[in-house]
Specification:
heterodimer; A: alpha+beta; two-stranded antiparallel ribbon; globular; B: mainly beta; two-stranded antiparallel sheet
Chain lengths: 394, 408
Amino acid sequence: MKKLILILLGCLAFACENIIPEPPAEDEILDGPMQGLNSSEQARFLAGDFAFNEEVFSSGTGLGPTFVATSCGSCHAGDGKGHPFTTLTRFGQTAPNTPPNLHIGGPQLQNRAIPGYTPEILPEGTPFMKLTPPAVTGLGLLSALTDDQILTNADPYDLDGDGISGVPNYVNPPSYFVPQWFHQDANGRYIGRFGKKAATIDLLQQTVSAYNQDMGITSTFEPVDPFSGLEVDPEVSDQTIRDVVFYLRTLKAPIQRSQNDQQIIQGKTLFSQIQCGDCHTPEWTTLSSDIVALSNKTFFPYTDLLLHDMGPGLDDGVTEGSAETFEWRTPPLWGLGLSPNSQGGSYFLMHDGRASSIEEAILLHGGEAGTSRTKFESLSAEDKTALIRFLKSL
Amino acid sequence: MKKYLFLPVFLFALVANAQIDSTLLKRVPVDTSYTKAMNMDAVYNRPFLQLGNLPASIGGYVEADYQYMGQDGITEGHSFRIPRFTLFVASSIHRKIKFLSEIELEEGGKQISIEFAALDLTFHPLFNLRGGVVMNPIGAFNQNHDGPKWEFVDRPIAMTEMLPATWSNVGFGLYGKYYSKAWAFGYEAYLTNGFDDSIISNNQNKTFLPAAKENALRFEKSSNGQPLFTGKIAVRNNKVGELGLSYMGGIYNRFETDGLVLDAKRRLDVLAVDFNTTISATKTYLVGEWAWVMVDVPETYSQQFGEQQKGGFVDIVQPILRGKLAGFDKAVFSLAFRLEYVDWNVGNFEETGGNISDDLWAVVPAISFRPVSQTVIRLNYRYMQQQDILGNPPSKIGGIQIGLSSYF
């Protein structure tokens, strides 16, 4: 008996070192804080993390009555790209700089409802666009860029003759918007940088809008219930909203994998050669920020945050802000290879998830990206593989 | 209020125990027909202490444990818990009328609940009336959940979170048993208060039957005026084991208030099968349970809330040493293994046709030491994987749990 107990205690002592499942590699996951946060910032990150990933709304806590999702995490599993299950449908604005037609239920369809209520139905014949929820990592770095930096790449009249224009989306700010030193006032409008059409100026607007339009949760920032159209009591606190914004600002940027792999290096070269990088701008550096960890950081999002004509194939006939219906913001490519880890093992790419692979997504590029697509098509199979592997490494 | 009622009773029990000669306390023999006892007897098949000639006997059990668990490489460190402290009081009012109550304090008193408080009237072995707070006989674990009976620190997830553990309600019903040589047949049928809208409107982001336990008003009135039916039949052969089949169902939602229709009537149906046996040649004890949950979820609600769930567990317990161990005359040292699985959301996405995941499985190898039959010390290693609704790479959870549990 004593021997047996000793053996078991020995096994236990050995097991204690190995009982906790290994963590996934840091470059294989999207969630987690960026490096350099101090302890109070870490605590705030955790508060935002809880609100974003753990807080689930129900009818008792303000959900809906019409809604799309029950929590932030429902749309952004692991902080990554979303799944068609929580695809958003936007409608109402069919031309640049026109109102979103709130009277017909725009700008977003709330296609689900709590028991006893009827979900919103898309008005017959109304053009609409479906939007797959984006990954939310690294947004703090993008939000720390200045409008000046974004405008550096803008070429609305294609003065350089490369066939690529790139225009900012100038949008009317919400009433609670407070311009920062890096925002530029353009006759009362500001450059949008978030969302598929770049119609959202900052992460506060993004967060408030998502609570309101995705979950039917009102706040002091956006007190109007999308179902009734009436102002109601706030259903989420200002502190929670601020914590979520902080969380989004301080989520780490995706980490590229296998950077030294020769085929991936070759793919990176090809990416540049066929001019993908003309819109998917690889590298940026922030200036100063109120969060030290965001200041003077060089990062690699592969986006220029500008709108581009993507051709008639991607024109859904709906738009936001000053964007044309055929214009889309260049989506960041960082984290692209990890998309299946948040999309249930599959790829659902492009703005509405219509592409089931990276190659299919490239081939759906039109308009200003048509030249790059043609160059991709003419690559050898080996070069295509190298390029795809590079994109998957992001 | 429950706290205030409970405290004097508890203090009285302590003081009484301190002042009396312990020889006056006599152990009430456990049901002597144990070999014929069925799962449905679990509430009475417990050790009790009787004070002198008082008509009431008391008992209870306590569970305490230590755990060191982690998820995906991150651990919260070392943790000590007292998940349950339960007291029961039983009394025979007449040889055919008896009463039993069970009050449980969970997590050091964070939650106090009456799990059982029912009066039993026997008219015939096949015809007994039970009324009060009854334990709905769905599956086997709900009625037979006492910590000291199990070799595992944690309760099976499917039987505690998919089916609500210690799910009890106010109601009435009948039960009975029939014996014939090595065979026993039992039945139970109750009408009670039941579930409410919270099972699909909760902060768990899934169909979650235990959410209804939060509604303490269910002991006061039904949430919708519709009774919940729970019924079970079971058959036991002393040489083969026991097999039970149970059903629980009814309208769960509040469809009408003040005569105004709020929603359609929506049903909840639960089916469970359970078994237990001891292989006589090896003394290997096997127990398991599997259940299916079907919920009428509005089509226009979110698929986050599953219309179907399924899950269960199987435990294998193999005694390897019996006899005088560590100074105890009838000690038992066992190896045990649990396999459990829950699918919180059986179905496919409307948008893609792909499988809805939201499931978990766990394996729990265990070692247990019973110095006496009523006390168990157990060492578990738990490894679990759970996937989100989309089927993304699973979260991996593992760690050590050491606990003790004993009747007193």
